[in-house]
Design goal:
Keywords: Membrane, Transmembrane, Transmembrane helix. The protein has 3 helices and 21 strands. By secondary structure, the protein is mainly beta. It folds into 3 domains: about 170 residues, Immunoglobulin-like (Sandwich), CATH 2.60.40.10; about 100 residues, Immunoglobulin-like, CATH 2.60.40.2360; about 35 residues. The strands form 5 sheets. Strands 1, 6, 8, 9, 11, 13 and 14 form a 7-stranded mixed beta sheet that branches. The radius of gyration is 33 Å and the shape is elongated.
Length: about 350
């Protein structure tokens, strides 16, 4: 029996047909067993693109062959046998989704790696060349895939369940003649919805109006109608990937107490070097006060205004005076007061 433990991680790196150069990138993202994989070249044309530092993003013509180098690292204190291969991926439900196991697609079939596996000593790292050969007959459009680094643990006598841990680098490869399609998007329809806990969320619809898939992140700020009160910025959740021409939803948790009512909302989103801002109005729910514990008189007294409380005091004094006078007259045998 084999149990697969899978993680697609945003780790450093990029691509381009030519002019790639080594750059300083974050440490490779580590797997559950202390290993990682990372690109160690960024195309000059994408050197300022933060998204290109995380994923292989490129546009090439049919018949193009290009190479990239990845670095595989063993960050554990034991020897590691790490398998390397390309796998299929797709964008489903506004999420970049990798296929289980070693399932492939058109893009993964164009990828070959210099080594199918590496054996690394503790804290050792090594570079591996990745070659992408696009056929001349390749049709126009964007393809998605993953370069995987994987460690497999077979079943043992003590544990009859095997394990697979893998980490990978996403691939966004666009094929077509001419220049690269533009990246663009629009922010629509901001509104407030209940969150998973006590705080509300502000959501927005994002329309990818460009020709490349986008990975959206950003911030939300709120201000009162007069602009005197401002709140935020609140982080927009990551993990939303939208293919060309499609819609996706982003959300930000409003995790601080704010007065209920209408607020001006400003959401700033980015994908790579492209940044867009959307504005609108949202209605935050009013705060709910906790119930006040009191005795039987508590609700009555708390519900009275200052004038009502004074009236109540006068009524109680008049009733007490009347009862005292009546008792005195009874004891004296006199007439009861009217």
């Amino acid at each position: 029996m084999l149990l697969a433990s899978v993680a697609i991680l945003a780790i450093g790196g990029p691509p381009a047909p030519a002019g790639a150069q080594p750059v300083s990138l974050p440490d490779p993202a580590g797997g559950a067993d202390g290993f990682g994989i990372q690109l160690i070249e960024v195309p000059v044309s994408r050197a300022e693109d933060p998204r290109a530092r995380s994923y292989i993003i490129d546009h090439v013509r049919p018949g193009t062959t290009f190479q990239r180098r990845v670095e595989v690292r063993n960050s554990s204190e034991k020897d590691q046998h790490i398998e390397l291969y390309a796998g299929a991926a797709a964008i489903e439900g506004s999420a970049f989704t990798a296929s289980d196991g070693r399932a492939g697609n058109e893009l993964s079939g164009w990828v070959s790696l210099e080594s199918a596996s590496v054996d690394l000593a503790p804290q050792e790292r090594t570079a591996v060349k990745v070659t992408v050969a696009v056929p001349k007959a390749a049709s126009k459009g964007e393809r998605y895939g993953v370069i995987w680094a994987q460690i497999s643990r077979p079943p043992t006598q003590q544990d009859n369940v095997g394990q697979i841990h893998r980490v990978g680098i996403r691939m966004y490869l666009d094929i077509g003649p001419g220049g690269e399609p533009p990246t663009d998007f629009r922010i629509d329809g901001m509104k407030t919805v209940p969150g998973s806990g006590e705080w509300p969320m502000v959501t927005a619809q994002v329309h990818n109006t460009g020709g490349r898939a986008i990975d959206v992140g950003g911030t939300l700020t709120l201000s009162s109608g007069s602009g005197t009160v401002k709140a935020g910025p609140f982080a927009v959740g990551t993990g939303v990937t939208i293919p060309p021409g499609q819609y996706g939803q982003v959300s930000a948790l409003v995790d601080q107490p704010l007065a209920g009512g209408r607020w001006n909302a400003r959401m700033t989103l980015f994908s790579g070097t492209v940044e867009r801002t959307g504005e609108g109005q949202v209605i935050l729910p009013g705060a709910v006060a906790a119930p006040v514990k009191s005795d039987a008189w508590g609700p009555l007294v708390l519900s009275l205004s200052v004038g009502g409380a004074a009236t109540l005091v006068l009524v109680i004094a008049a009733v007490a005076w009347y009862l005292v006078r009546r008792e005195r007259n009874r004891l004296r045998g006199g007439a009861r007061p009217a």
